[in-house]
Amino acid sequence: MSDLNALNKETHEAWEVNADVWDNRMGDEGNEFFNILCWPALASLLDLRPDSHILDIACGNGLTTRRLAELGAQVTAFDFSSNLIEKAKVRLANHASHVTFHVIDATNESQLLSLGENKFDSALSNMALFDMADIETLFRILPRLLKPNGAFVFSITHPAFNNASSAHVVEEIDDHGEMKITYAIKTSRYMTPFHQRGLALRSQPKPQVYFDRPLQYYLNLGFQNGFVLDGFEERAFPPETSQSHPLSWGGKFSELPAVIVARMRLVS
After folding, report:
1. pLDDT tens string 130-140
2. Around 44, how many Cα atoms within 13 Å sit in the side-chain half-sphere?
């Protein structure tokens, strides 16, 4: 078994085990990280039209799937965790006629192509690409799944400020006779892709594998496969946002973006 296959297998096992905890934490409405940092930019960049057909990649418990369906989109959603797909189906109380769920591995070419070619107006991936051992297959196959001029909108943790090697730092400084608390990020690596095991939620039973890649890795994959970048946001919490832990992402880190959201569009 290749290293990538072994890492993909480990990642799949982790998400199957962590599905209950993740579903309970995200619930029907998501958390502040999703609602403040991710969704507003995702919805804006998708620029949904009536009856748009959206591919929701690595949909988890269906949080983005439900939002898209509520906006009137037809949604095909998939995840490689069968446990998460079952929870997504249970939570889809309304708009079920607008949604089709699949258990599909985004690193598997034939499974991706089974979704149908030239079928989707756009594709969405929320906070998932850094959980995938291989994203080159997805970027290579997406142009065949999307309609002409189709868009791929994705959000990821900020590769420079919010990767698996970054540490949150709090310091007290004497600023011209006034004692102040400052919050910062300390990071030791960025340019070279690497993977590291970690916890998305402190309560999850099994660590997951994070695959950190520099921004140029994502963009160049898009460029090499016929996409151009035509929308981009770096997202930070507003200063007034509260936080549940003194060194978790929140308003105290308002100058340091935790998330990027990008739109890449196919060009003919």
Report:
1. 999 999 999 99
2. 13
